Amino acid sequence: MEARAHIRPGELPISHEGFLAHKRFRYLKAALLVIVVSVLVYFLADMGGRHNGGTWLGYSLGIISASLIVWLMLLGIRKRAATPGQYNLKGWTSAHVYLGTTLLVLATLHTGFQFGWNLHTLAYALMVLVIISGVIGVYYYATVPRRMSDNRARRTQRDMLDAIDALNRELTQAAQPLDPKYVREVKRAIKKTRIKPGLFISIPASQLRCATTRAAKRLRHAMQSADADMRRPLEQVVAILERKSALLRRTRQHIRNKTLLQLWLYFHVPLSFALLAALAAHIISVFFYW
Ligand code: HEM
Ligand code: HEM
């Protein structure tokens, strides 16, 4: 089937099931502790004036934040390392999400709330963007169907494509007793059906455009005026077309979910590299002016 050539199975190599509640919210608790301690120290410590990144507390918070950022970046490498232990990876993702969010507090306290139109604030702004995109990703992982979130997604897609292939064979066979014009219609529907939905079209809209769905409607309509001996085989063909249309809808939704997950990573990851670069520049520049 030619439509199949358009689909490249995506890479979603790890299980995201339950990473938020991992080990009874161990990393949420750790994150809350980090926040409480840093806020307390910030307000209790006497800096002999205004807080900023250059005090001992400022440096400590800056170094902790920067180390945390480097560690968060390592998730990409950890994800791809071919070591066993999905379970462990779940822990990493859980820690990534909760400890990553604490940066909002740690880095903000590091700055002593001194922002301006400068390189330092650019690093800060990029960090906030990375965190916001992270939160969106978590929301996304939490809301797409669970089977989307791990390597079962690939198997599911293969199963769906195999089932579509099987329905195509059934269709070709069931169409044989029909008038040539209906046979042509069925063949055209098989040939013209594109499985992959375009990115800028909703799934219901792509169903409306779908050659299989339209052929099902047309043949159902034709059934009403068909001769008695043609009606039965037409009915069979329409039933298969409708089954295929329903399966196509599920397959399209599945592909859409997977594409969006991948697209999200195209934001989160490049932004985090930009952050890393701005952070390096920030650190170098503060030492330069020291
Ligand atoms: C090793 C890590 C870090 C070091 C050594 C460091 C050092 C400093 C120093 C010395 C200052 C004071 C500059 C001044 O008063 O002119 C400062 C301010 C600042 N830092 Fe950092 N920093 C680090 C990490 C970070 C991180 C992770 C962020 C956020 C992504 C950040 C964002 C800022 C901002 C926004 C300011 C305020 C700049 C201003 O006064 O306009 N820093 N940092
Ligand atoms: C400055 C902070 C952060 C940095 C530098 C960072 C960086 C990264 C990197 C490099 C990856 C690996 C992606 C890949 O290569 O596949 C990743 C994945 C991810 N990040 Fe972040 N991240 C940060 C904060 C956050 C936050 C705060 C959240 C959530 C609230 C978050 C949620 C995620 C999620 C859900 C993944 C996907 C995990 C997966 O697919 O296995 N990140 N992040």
Largest sheet: none
What is the radius of gyration?
28 Å
User: Into how many domains do the coordinates divide?
Assistant: 2
- The total strand number stands at 0
Poorly predicted runs of 5 or more residues: 1-15
Total number of helices: 9
What small-molecule ligands were found?
protoporphyrin IX containing FE
Walk me through what this model shows.
By secondary structure, the chain is mainly alpha-helical. It has 2 domains: 154 residues, no CATH class; 107 residues, no CATH class. Helices cover 76% and strands 0% of the residues. The chain has 9 helices and no strands. Helix 2 packs antiparallel against helix 3, helix 5 packs antiparallel against helix 6 and helix 5 packs antiparallel against helix 9. It is elongated and about 95 Å long. The N and C termini lie far apart (66 Å). The N terminus is likely disordered. One protoporphyrin IX containing FE binds next to helix 2, helix 3, helix 4 and helix 9.
Brief overview:
With 290 residues, the chain is an all-alpha fold. It is 76% helix and 0% strand. Helix 2 packs antiparallel against helix 3 and helix 2 packs antiparallel against helix 9.
Write the layout of secondary structure elements.
Elements: H1 22-44, H2 56-80, H3 86-111, H4 119-143, H5 152-175, H6 180-192, H7 203-209, H8 211-225, H9 228-288
Helix pairs in contact: 1-3, 2-3, 2-9, 3-4, 4-9, 5-6, 5-9, 6-8, 8-9
The structure holds protoporphyrin IX containing FE (2 copies).
Which tags fit this structure?
9 helices, 76% helix, elongated, disordered N terminus, binds protoporphyrin IX containing FE
